Amino acid sequence: MKLLAATLFRGALALSAPSTAAAFLSPASQSLVKFPSATSDLRKSISCHAKRGEGYGPPLNNISETVGNTPMVKISDRICPKGRTIYAKCEFFNPLSSVKDRLALSIIEAAENDGSLKPGQTVVEATSGNTGIGSGCYDVCSAWLSCVITMAEPFSIERRKLMRMLGAKVIVTPKAGKGTGMVEKAKELAEKHGWFLCHQFETDANWKIHYETTGPEICNDLKDMNFDYWVTGYGTGGTFHGAGKYIKEHSPDTKIILAEPGAANLIGSGLSTDRNPDGSPACSHPAFNPHPIQGWTPDFIPLVLEKGLGQSIHDELVDIPDGAAVQMSQALARNEGILTGISGGATMWAAVETAKKAPEGSVLVAMLPDTGERYLSTPLFASIEADMNEDELEIARSTPSFILEPVS
Ligand SMILES: Cc1ncc(COP(=O)(O)O)c(C=O)c1O
């Protein structure tokens, strides 16, 4: 939270300096970042729907009541091509800071309601992390559930620790087994121990929650204007399938842009995934290669995604080139005060590229699935030092007291 607070403070400082452009040293870029003056678009763009100080509303019964209703935020022309408008749908406003809170809650509620999840039963799921973080929390909310997560080795350490912090047990599967390995392990554990398997890659409860919440939220929030493009990537394909289906039905002129890593061009390859009778993948997809966009594109085409693709929901497929996702995620942090993960950077890159080709006046919405704080140990933060750099040391030495010299 400190990181986020610092970035927001930067923006606040700019706003509190009415006559001059505020200048602030950006440790990450080693350069002076200039913020616009108070007369700029930055200030004009402040439009909280509830006034600060009004309060949130009556106290909630538990944290799961805060899932969904995430805000959309306008991207400035520091990133958005001139004459176009891009709104970021900020899913890190969910209580566990990702879009997967919606699905985790939906699966558990649906299974409780139809009786397939019994009191006291353990919940098990294969996940790149965000679903597990959500499940860990909502199991705790249910008070009588416990949670076991299988997760492949390459996903960030932060995810493992967060899930354990939330009371889940995390079974790490070998890197060589890829996504299909962690899915297979979860199935095996469920069968052996009689646990409830979430089946996030196959269950209709996944896309349905996005049909019932994510899609309507976007259309409702933009009801006074047409939006021309909606841009998303896919992990399970739940967001794409559910929100995409809703948007196609309620805003038929909106074009849906689906993105995938250039290195793992599964949809682009035109090859399908062989399935087991329960819809889970029977083997690894031949077009898969390891890629840095955690949470996106496992080494198979999930059934939830395939069902969406079968309804011709998307109008265009965009490949994300190497490095573009991390660069855009860093640019969002430095230019917009928006701290999102690598998949958020990838989606925004696809949105910006789409905007460049779109007619003047076009409005785009890009999904930002999670928070950047979940990536401290990944390439997203590889260029961010923990120790003071030369510029910072120079500032420290510019006054006499409390100088922490580096130990050589
Ligand atoms: C970081 C991140 N981005 C995007 C996604 C994709 O969401 P969906 O599973 O709805 O396709 C996920 C899903 O795990 C994720 O963890």
TrEMBL record:
Protein name, entry field: Tryptophan synthase beta chain-like PALP domain-containing protein
Keyword Membrane: no
Domain Tryptophan synthase beta chain-like PALP intervals: 63-370
Signal peptide coordinates: 1-23
One matching Pfam family: PALP
UniProt KW keywords: Signal
Superkingdom classification of source: Eukaryota
InterPro entries per the UniProt record, alphabetical: Cys_Synth/Cystath_Beta-Synth, TrpB-like_PALP, TrpB-like_PALP_sf
